[in-house]
Amino acid sequence: MNLKERIKNDIKEAMRAKDSVTRDTLRNLSAAIKQIEVDERRELSDADVEAILMKYLKQREDALEQFIQAKRDDLVAKEKAEIELVRRYLPEPMDDAELEATLKEIITELKAETMKEMGKVMGKAKAVIGSRADGGRISQAVKKLLGA
Fold first, then answer.
1. pLDDT for the residue numbered 148
2. SS3 string of the chain?
3. Does the global pTM surpass 0.70?
């Protein structure tokens, strides 16, 4: 079962279980997926769906920070629940050692030595790592490895 079908099935399960947080979160994700499919007139792959999930996760994390600063505990709990739910659909994130090892392989393969080649490394890294690490983490690790 692909990721999109899994989300649709989980919406039905959440409706049966009367779990409004799960139902609403998954409906938002499903709507985002459908919007892109309609706009671009194509069927999305699991990698495309993972990219949407990563974007949604980043939005929830940003909102969580703002709610914490505003001391809105009611909304903090809701955002934490949504973040946890979205993470269930994403692959296990890379730990720092695994990320660094993967980036070292990419840098060696591309024979990159300076920061001028960071774009090339980032492009390849995004393709290889996918949604197992966000762009910010990848960028920081690449800068560290290339000596910035």
1. 66
2. CCHHHHHHHHHHHHHHCCCHHHHHHHHHHHHHHHHHHHHHCCCCCHHHHHHHHHHHHHHHHHHHHHHHHCCCHHHHHHHHHHHHHHHCCCCCCCCHHHHHHHHHHHHHHHCCCCHHHHHHHHHHHHHHHHHHCCHHHHHHHHHHHHCC
3. yes
